[in-house]
Amino acid sequence: MDVSGDQAMSSLWYVLALILVGSALLARRAPMAGLLRMALFWVVIFAVLLMLFKLGERSGLFSAQMQREGASSSQQSESPTPASVPTAQVEGQALRIPMAPDGHFWVEGTVNGTPTRFLIDSGASITALSVQSARNAGLNFDLNAPGVSMMTANGRIAVQRASVSTLAIGPIRASDIDIVVSPTFGEVNVIGMNMLSRLDSWGVQNGEMVLTP
């Protein structure tokens, strides 16, 4: 904070102190000697509080706390995938996926045999993988190569195309699935309509996503 900011803060504290003290004194209508002692007492209290506030500010206590809170918020926004998801249940040939606490449908699956967590998104036209998940699955792609433009809910982004040999969630298996890869996806992997359209049926029933191959 600059000098003018310090002066403004000090002035504000003193004005508030005078208003509070004056209001208290007028309300009590105490003798003059008592009024002076009480006024001095409150002025000292406000002066000590102001000094402590300035010391904390100059030592970086408040800014450090705000930085920690900002870092925590940033980490949460960069990692939207929940730490754990409800377990999907196989019922006959169908896979029933409970709704997660965040209101989405997440499911554990595999890509080329590699464990991968997916978000089921009927609004996505194509299945998408994070860069890390694509690398873990051994997919062949080059982020430095010219990509293709794709429109998403967050605007137009550049993606790399690739193909998955096998994608599985529960009893559901699919081969030769086209996917897209982009750092923009963060840690989220999405099963889109090019996978869902291969199913016999899919939809939400009683708070569960039901997929039938």
Automatic annotation (TrEMBL):
It comes from the Bacteria. Residues 67-88 are annotated as: Disordered. InterPro entries: Aspartic_peptidase_AS, Clan_AA_Asp_peptidase_C, Peptidase_aspartic_dom_sf, Retropepsin-like_bacterial. Residues 67-87 have a biased composition (Polar residues). Keywords: Hydrolase, Membrane, Protease, Transmembrane, Transmembrane helix. The chain crosses the membrane at residues 12-28, 34-53. Pfam families: gag-asp_proteas (PF13975). GO terms for molecular function: aspartic-type endopeptidase activity. NCBIfam families: clan_AA_DTGA. This is Aspartyl protease family protein. It comes from Sphingobium vermicomposti.
